[in-house]
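Appendix B, example 12.
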Amino acid sequence: MNFVPKITLYERKDIEILIAFLLKKIGGMSKEELLCCTVDKEYVRYFDMICCLMDMEEKEIIVCEHEGDTERFYPTAKSNYLVIELGDSLPISLREDALYCAQKITARMRLENSVKCEIISLEKGYQLYIRFINETGGEDLMELKIFAPTLAAAEQMERRFFDNPAGAYRSVLNSFIQGYLTVSEAEIQEALE
């Protein structure tokens, strides 16, 4: 079990370094994603984080782009330089744990854009409805409807599906094309991206 000692950053420069580090490693992140892997983990206080984001944007250390209602922050040459010069000044346990959290959050967000799940109430029971979206346009790649006797069972199936969506996709697809063609993990990831 990984144990990360509780560390909270209070110095503005340290918070800026953490933000720059995450953006350099991940690329673009929404404000919500940044808050999840910093404030929710208690590495940074909320108001300190918001102030640093505004200051960094004003100083052009990061760039903010609006995509609908979502603000996404991106690294710049200045933020990358900040990480190269001062990134090692942050505790490695904090950096790595925040990065791990950011990778999980952003991967989940990408997955939720390519796979849609819905729990539908039936007269007797529930149905887990899963759609694999064709992101290049056209028809969905695949749709699955699975019966569940209770809402709790449907929610558990949804959680288990999101733990390994590529495995579910591969298992269903391979059962239909067995003997003709097998689908590799790389092909599944390419289809889902």
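DSSP finds eight helices and six strands in the chain. Helices lie at 12-26, 31-38, 46-58, 77-86, 92-114, 151-163, 165-177, 185-192.
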